[in-house]
Model the fold of this input.
Amino acid sequence: MAWVTEALFPGYLFARFDWRETLRLVQHSRGVRGVVHFGERWPAIPEEVIRELQQAIGATGLRTIPAEFVPGDEVKLVEGAMRGLRAIVARVLPGRERVGVLMEFLGRQTMIEVPLKLIVKEGDERAEIL
Done:
C-alpha cells in the first residue's frame, strides 16, 4: 500500500473576511495570488458547506481513499491494441499508477502491466459501452 497526501483544493485557502472592507489587504498578503471572483461577484461559501467539508475530512485534515483496484478484480481494457479484452488484477502498483493484470492471450495466461486509466472493473457502466 502506498500513502499519498494530496490537497482536496490545491492552491486554495478558505478564509473568512469582510471583502468590502479588507479585500485589498487579503489580495496583497504574502503568498496570495488572487481571490476567486466572477467578474464583479465575490462568491461566499455557506457555513454549512464548510462544516460538511470539515466533517468529511476530519480533525486530522487527512482522509484515506481506498485503492480503486485490488488483486482479484475482474477488469476490461478500454483503450489500446487490447481494447475489450478481459483480465484479472494480479497486483497494484499505486506509486506508478499501474496494475499488473493476468489475461488469456494466444492460448496462454500472460501477465502485463497497464496504466490504471486503461482499465475498468467488470460491471462498470463504462465497460458496457465497449
Remarks:
- Helices lie at 19-27, 47-57, 125-128.
